[in-house]
Amino acid sequence: MRVSVTEEFTEDENENGEEERVFLKPVIEDRNMELARKCSEIISDVHYKEEFEKSKGKCIFVPDTPQLKHVKSVGAFISEVKYKGAAKKDLSNSLYQQMPATIDSAFAKELTQLQSKVRL
Description:
The chain has 120 residues and is α+β, with helices and mostly antiparallel strands. The chain has two domains: 2-55, no CATH class; 72-119. The chain is built from five helices and four strands, in the order E-E-E-E-H-H-H-H-H. The strands form two sheets. A two-stranded antiparallel sheet has the order 1-4. A two-stranded antiparallel sheet has the order 2-3. It is rod-shaped, with a radius of gyration of 39 Å.
C-alpha cells in the first residue's frame, strides 16, 4: 500500500478578507484506487482519440463473404453496362455515321455489320 502526500494547498479569502489555508488530505492508494484509476483511463476520451489517430493508417482485412462477392460482381456488371452504353452512344454520333452515303461507305458499313455478327 502506497501513501502519497500532497503538498499543495489552496488559499481562499473568506468574507472578512482573511486568507484561509486548506490542506489536502493524503491519498491512500490501495486496490480500489488502482481500479478507479484504470477505469478512468479506459473511459478517458484522450486515450480513445490517441488510439483512433494511431489506427488511422492501418488496413483492416475484411473476408469475402458471399454477399460481398455478389455486390462486387453486380457493381462490375453495372459499370460494364454503363461503359458499353456510352460507347454505343458515341459511335452513333461519329463522323462515319454522318457521312453522305456513297457506294464505298455503304459497302464498308455492310462489312462491319457482318463482321460484328460473325464475332458474336
